[in-house]
Amino acid sequence: NPWGKKEWEGAWSDGSEEWTPDRMRRLNHQFGNDGVFWISYKDLLKNFQHIDRTRLFGPNWSITQKWTSINVPWSVNYLDTHFKISLSKASSVVIVLSQLDERYFQGLAGQYDFQLQFRLHKDGDDEYLVRSNPSYFMRRSVNAELDLDAGQYSVIIKISATRYQYRSTPEDIIKKTCQTRRDKLLTVGLSYDLAHAKGHFKESELERKERLRKERREKRKQKAKKAFESKRTSDKKEKLKTKRLEMKKGEKDKQEGPKGEEIADKKIENTGQETNNSLASAKSTGVDNPPDGTKVLEQAVAGKKVRVTLEISDQVNDPEKGKQAADKEQKHLEDAEQ
Fold first, then answer.
1. Helices in the chain by DSSP H: which ranges?
2. How far apart are alpha carbons 211 and 233 in whole angstroms?
3. CA dist 162 → 15, 72, 76, 109, 261 (Å)
């Protein structure tokens, strides 16, 4: 009786007449309500129908465990989910199938109780070697102990559920306690999360295909999003670069504008003087030997080039006609300046 709440009160119980000082010394027994008592084998079979024992493992044992999560089906059959055991040599084996201890998150366990069962098969054999026996009181785990040869083994499991509608659902518990017992709810909820984080759901083939399809779709979305962001960043940089160049060009034109107009006015004035000088020279010396009979002047007016061609014919030998030609050309230059 590991709970220490009640002991056997018949023969060989504490204080019974069967005990003598010698027997107590030889069996190292002491009286007390400590959960430890002696009972005859006949009374054990007569008064107890089920016995749970605690197995202590020494340093010569190797212990391993694996948790998983399972969606319990409506039909009570052995599930596809199973555990594999590999033995390199013959040895004694203790197999324990356990579910979470609901005492750590009592109130959030829900309306269902679950009963566990398992069978042990050697790979390649149709018949099972052993199956678990349900516990009379301790339903949290079932076990089996046996000696096995070297080889590969499978533990297949079956879970049945019983619903108790009088129990509150986790949603109801949270609504009732979230305001009045918030700290307690957080503590129990944390224990619930830690306990259920041990296992992972076994993925079916259909679920695996759906997961892979979603992952591929998500990768395509991320790739397209990355390409879009890259193009948008590149376009922004290009627009900013163009805007900066336009600003620099505008500042440069603004600085050079007055100076360029001044140079153009000066050039027009000088060109006009040169034309007058050329006409005057032609007027005083005559045009007996004009270069090819023409003279071409180019000048910049307000940033534009103006081409003025002076055609001097043989008739300029006449001073009066030469003066008329000079006046005509002077008017052309004035019109160009305007």
1. 21-26, 41-47, 170-177, 182-196, 205-285, 319-337
2. 33
3. 44, 11, 11, 13, 101
3-class state of residue 238 by DSSP: helix
- pTM for this model (two decimals): 0.49
Q: pLDDT tens digits for the chain (338 residues)?
A: 555 567 888 999 888 899 999 999 998 888 887 778 899 999 999 988 877 777 888 888 988 888 888 778 777 788 888 899 999 999 999 999 888 877 777 777 788 888 888 999 999 888 999 988 776 667 788 888 999 999 999 999 998 888 888 888 888 888 888 888 888 778 877 877 777 777 665 666 777 888 889 999 999 999 999 999 999 998 888 988 888 888 888 887 777 665 555 555 555 555 555 555 544 444 444 444 444 444 444 444 444 444 444 444 444 445 565 566 666 656 665 665 55
Q: Measuring CA to CA, which residue among 216, 57, 224, 205 is closest to residue 143?
A: 57
**Is-contact 121 156, C-beta < 8 A?**
yes
Task: Determine contact, residues 329/279, Cβ cutoff 8 Å.
Answer: yes
